[in-house]
Each structure stands twice: as structure tokens, then as C-alpha cells.
Design goal:
heterodimer, A: mainly alpha, 53% helix, B: 4-stranded antiparallel β-sheet, 24% strand
Chain lengths: 375, 544
Amino acid sequence: MKLGELQSFVSLRFDVDLPSLDKLVESHEAYFGDISFFDNAKRYLKARFDFLVTELARGRNVFCPDLFHALLGCLITNQPCERTQADVIAKHVLGLRCQGGFLTAPRTYVDQFPKFRSARTNPSIPEVYSSYYSYYLLQMLNVPFSGQDMENLVSWMVAHQKKSGAIYSDVYSDTPEPRRFETEVACQTFFGINVILSAKAKLPEFDPNDCLLKTKEWALGKWLSLRTVAGRYFALKTIQLVCPEEVSQLGSAEAIGFLEDRSDHHGEGYYDYRLSDKIDEFMSSSSATELDKISPHVFSTYYAASIMKILWSYGASIKIPLDRLKRLATKAANQDSGFGIKVMVKDFPEPYGPVSTELETLLILLLPLLTQVDI
Amino acid sequence: MSVEDAFGQMDLYRLLEDSHGLVSFELYDSGTLRTGECRYAFSLKENDKLEVWPAASSATKLTLNRYVPLKPHTVAFVGLYIGDGAKASHPGSAGIISFSQRESRLANFVRSHFIQLFGDSLTFTHRVNEDALFFMTDKMRQALGKLRDQLLAEGRTDILSREQLEDYLKRDLDSVIAEQAPATRIALEKHSRKAALQKHRKYLVEFFANRSIMNEYLKRLKLKELTDSGTPLSENDRIAVNIRLPGVKGAREEGKSSRSDELDVDGLRQFHALFLRILSDVQSSIEKNEEDVKVSGSSAPWLIWEGKPHDCGKFSIQTVEYLTQAEECGRFSRRRLVRYNCREEGQTLVISIGKSCFKVPKTLRFTPLLCLFFGLYLAEGQTPKWKIFKLAKEPVGSLKIGFTASEPDSVSVCMRGMKQLIAGENTIPEYWRIKVGAKYFPETVTIGNKIGTVALRRGEKGQGAASGFEIVENLRHWAVKSMPVLGEIESRFDHVEYTGAGIPRIDLFYPKGPEIYIFSLMRDLISNPSALNRFSVELGGANR
């Protein structure tokens, strides 16, 4: 991927203008007071990238979102991918191609789970998010992707747009839209639209207007009902892509109140959801949550700040609480040099899922750029 | 040797003395660390009796035995209560002691152990909770009608006659609600926005008209179940029935039951800390394989096993004789008891039934570990409990060995207990899975957000096997870190399942074959110990 393409991609996905490496380092120094977070993030992402590629070379499965974020972090911090590493990744990703899209994991990996071995229940089928990550991984590595490949990918993507305008595959995950996780639908739709717009730039005869119109209706119709910061973030970015003229009509006061409701009361970042949003799906009643734990996270804080920045850029009067973001970044710094906050369930002593992640470390790397506007 | 022989002992006086009366407990249960403490006063009486009362009030005094033998069924009782008993306590207030179990034989077993432990002055409430929707079918209306005639004939005046019922059913709902007790009106208001209550609002008048007769119906049913299980209601017991408003909880369709039964131990609230301390120390010493337990800072133990709890125990049985001769070790099928076939192979026995084949040790020692496993399984096992008690007497349908737990100790006890029961390949689960209830979906989605991926649901209700493998892999790592014993079977992980309710937890599933053998042992330990004594054998040191 050429520098300009990388800058444009990072701007589209992460809402920042990617400067030169020196400027990025300067932005860290100016924002955090030193460059230790930059150094840590750089080290962590490189170590993760090398580890993931080594795992792949050993024949083990590695997931594309992890590879994607680690590679992107390395490219941003000017740590180029070696040719042999690029070959290993390209072989893996190209091996995931299926029906125009890309699988979430190789069939050999899925076959280890008896539950999924039978053809009827085998979920090694393409998904929107896996196709997005695979496509952009190939782009970042400059792996040739022909016009026919692009046509196949975009055909697959458009074929998976639902009547509602949302984009997701219901081949394996066949749950009706109202019962799907809102973040899943919003995220996959945003990813789908990204690929469709990328195809529009590369395939002159491809006309995505119908598709964009349907997505516009979906995103505008959904906006107010979304209860998670991540859901709102992906919906807003979709609106920004398909109907930017509508952003200023979304109601910035409501959005600010929405984020305020999800701000951590210790002044450290933003939650993705409120405990009061936990409901018993089947009895439509509130859940008892007094023993549940909730934390602000890097992703939800970054996405909250992004929402503010986007609304500001369309004329809303918003001030990003820089100190709140800074405190969250400090809280999220881990001994492994990566960034991320634990998800805890009741008194289970072990964190529920990973603590440091490639994506959240990448977000900390970019955080000073996100806030580098005079608002 | 008898299954009544103790393999350890608790000295309650030592516990109270060494802790200066301040008894605290720490018990990990359902993802929650339960803690609590209570200060007790106590005095040693003649014949090793111990009088204990809460230091804050001498109104409730209990006379206990200073020495409590730890017998196989005492340990099974501990396992049962850890699995199905109430353990919650809140600072400043004592917790309730209540055992949640519909199977009357198990409830009675637990009841008898409370009496052994705390004396026969205890009283018990057998609580039955059921949803009103259970009664909203023609069949149940007929049954209630029959009971109505019977009660009226007996002279009951709190029951509406058929004519009065007809008139009542014509009344408008608002006037019926207006005359209900304040608590009922508050509950109706509280749940008024629930879709299920709205849907079943049409049954409310009928519910209020028939509430007393529904109560009576369930009371009589419970009484019959207790009598059939061999322990009729005594003067120390009472039955309390609670019929829930239609559509508020559990059942969502007419005729469907979501009955739950509880056995409340009355008058023990102040002894909650003492009881839970006993449970937690018995369980943790077995899990950690420690021969004794001391109060911190004390030199003498208050709980002693006669050896390592994974291996000790005087009572053992000849497995082949038990399998082939025990009166009820078999499965009722086609009007006869189908038994296992056994043949010797070195130090093990090869057992077969139908197409299933597995190995067992020639002799089986009843260790504290094994008895705790039996108790835990009878609480947390996926087998409907009535099947365990009926399998030799009537056809019970499919049987499988499946165990659910969210506590590392329980998973560890299950896996190690199964290794004592079985030899060879079938000692480890065929597969295991993680289940996540709807309440913890937000945390699960958060994992996806942290790594930039999505959580994918399945099926009409969004339940079933999760296919977002990035999240699945992370949950597998979480499970193995949380319950290290799963590391031994990590390769047998199968899937993550989204489900309606419950904290993230583990299901272990074992290969088919040994279920009759294992369920028969559990049943006989609980309800027919003499059936085990017949096959007793003297053993020296090790189990196998």
C-alpha cells in the first residue's frame, strides 16, 4: 500500500490524518508528556506481528483481525514487513478465499471442533468482517487483486445486503436482525460499505447507488435506538460515508447526552454500555446487575472521542475531554507493553478474554492524532 | 466395613475455640466470592455436647455434637448443598439456609443431615413455586374442578363454589385487582410492562379466582411426593406454596411448568456462617487433597481426614460383584433389568452394555473425593434426578453423564472423581463446552470489540453455537486459565454456546456407557447404603 493509500485508509477507519513518523512521535510527546506510550505500542505491535506470522509459518491458525491491526501498527511506526513474512500472510489470506469473500478461519481449523464438522453446521463460510480484513491485508501487502477479484468480492458483499440495508451474512449466523448484536450489525455494515466504496473507485462500471441508499435508510433509522458506543460509532461512520449531509441533522445534543451517560465516573474514559442497558432478552425486563462489573475500555473511549470529533467537524459545539482520554490511556498501559483494560465477570479471578490487544494498542498509538484538533 | 464408616472428623469446639468464636467463611460460588462471619458464644457440656449461640443474642441456642464424623454420605451432603443450596449472605445480615431441589429423595436426604448436624429441634418449610400458566389448560381446569368439589364436600369455606367461580370470572379485571393485597398490586404494577404479562393478562381474573385452589392442589401434590419418597411430612415440617402471576417468570406458555422446590431450614439464619465454614473447609480440603484443616494461627486441626482425601477411606466394594449382582445396578428396559457384562483384563474390568464398552477398577474405594463428586453431581449433573432414582424400575429414556460448573473446584472434583470410577479411555470427557447466558452477552461482545471482530449468534432466538472464532478462542483461553484442570482436556474443547440465562460456565460431557454404574452408586449411597455394604471388601493402601 502506498503512503497516500495508507493515509487515506487510516483516515477512513480511525478518523485521523496520518502524519510522518516524526510528527506522530511529536504528537505523543505533546499529548502524554513523553513518548513511552509510543515506544511501548510500537514494541508490542511489532512483537505481536512477528509472533503471529511465526505461528502462521508453523501451520497454526491466526485470525485476520489480529494480523491486520498488528501489521497496520507496524506500517504506521515504520517497521516494514519482511518479504518472507508478507508471503506467509498472503498465502494464508488467499487460502481463505471462498465464493468471492473470505472465510473467518481455514476449514482445517474449524474441523478441530466436532460440533462444526458436519457440512450442515460448518461455519467456514465467508463473513463480511473477515472479507474486509482479508481484502485490506492484501492491499497493505500489495498483493495483486485483479478487477475480477474485486468484482467477485463486491458481488458477494452486495448479495449479502439485507432488505433493511444492513450488510451481514446469514448463512451460518442465521439469527434475525432484531436479535443480532447491534454492534455486530453496525460494524459489519460499516465494513461492507467500505469494501463497496473501494470497489466503486476501482470498477468504473459498478454502480453502488441502490446499495448506498438502502444503507442510508438503515443507518439513519437505527441511529437513535443504538445503545452501545461501538454501535453508534460504526453507524455514524456509515452515515458519514453514505450520506455525509445527514451528519449535522443527527442531533448533537442527544449524542453528547448519550456519551455523557456512558462516561466513567472516575473520569477515565467511556463505557461501551451502561449496566442499566443489560436486559433479560426474553422477559424484556432489567437484569439484576449489582454483582456485575463494568469498565471503560480503550475502544469505547476512542470511539466516543471519534463520535465527538466527527460531529464537531460537521458544526456541533463539542469539546473532547482530553484529560479523560489521557487518564484512560494511562490506566490501560500493561506490563506486556500493550494496551487494554480487563473485562471482568462477577468475581471470576481471571479476565474474561484478552487484556492487551492489537486493536486497542493501535488506538492508543493514534489517540494523540485523534485529539489533535483545536476543539 | 460399612459405608457408614467415617473417613474423617470435625471438632466444632476446636473451630470455635481457636477462632475465639468469630467464625468466618469464604466460598466461591456461581462466579461470586461469598464471604461472611459471625461471632458465637459457646460452652462445652457433658458427653461432648456443645452449646452454641450468636454472641449478639442468646435467644437461639443450638446443642451440637462436638465431634461430627465425616462419613461418605456426610460428604455427599456437603456436595449437594454446595451445588444446590443458598449461599448468599449480605454484610450485617445472616443468610438463609435453603436447599433448592425438586427431587424429594434428595431433599429428604439433605433434611436428615441438617438434623444430624444441628439437632432435631429444627423445623423445615418445603416451598413449592409454580407459575399460574401451568394451570391454564382444560386438563388442569378439570383437575382443579375435581379438587374444588372435594374441598367443598370437606366443608372448606375459603373455596369458591362452581357458581361463585362463574360469577367471579365475569368480573372486570380492574375491580378484581383493586381488592387484592397491596403486595400483589405492587407486583402487578412492577411487572406491567413485561410483554409476557401483557400477553397473559387475560388469565389474571382466573388466577385470582383460583389462587387458593391452585395452592391446595400443589400442597397435596407435594405431600404425596414426600410420602412416596418414604419421608412423610412430620410435625416439624410445613409446606408453603407460591403461585406466580402468569407471564412474570419462567413458563411462557399455557400448561408449561417452571416449578422449583426449596427446602428452607427455619431458625438457622444465625448459624449461616458456621454452616458455610463447614462446607467450604470440607470442600477445599478435599479439592486440595489436604489431610487436615486448622484455624489460622492454631496448631491443632479442627477437621481431620484419616489420610489424603483423594485416596483415603476404609470402605471399598468389589466392582464386578456390584455390577453383576446389586439389586438395582442396571437399567429397566423391555420389562426387565438389563445389566452390564463384565470380563477381567489385568487389573481392570472390561464392562459392556449394548454397543458401549468401558473399563473400571476391580475394587472401588469410597474416598472423600468420590463422595464429594457424587454429591456435586446430584446437584449439578445434567441428568434429571428422577431418572437416577428410577432407572432400575422403569424406562427413563436417554441417559448421559454431563456436568455443569462455574467453580474451578467443582470441575476439578468432577474430573478427578471420574478418574477414580473409570479406568482407561473413558476417564476424560468426550468434549466440553462453554455456555454464556444472555446477561453476559455485553461482556462477550466487548471481547469482540477489543479485538476488532464481531459476536455472531445463531438460530431464531440467537442461541446456539457461536461461530465468531476469534471470540471463541479467547473464551477457551479464559476457561482454561480460570479452571486450570481443563488444561488436561483443552484439545477436547468443542464450542461456545449462547443461551438464555446463567453466568459463563463449563459443561463436561462423558462418553456413553458408565452412566448406569455411576448413577447406581450415587443412588445407593444416598438412599440405599445397605445395597453397597453387601459388596464391601477389605483393602489395604491404594485404590487400584
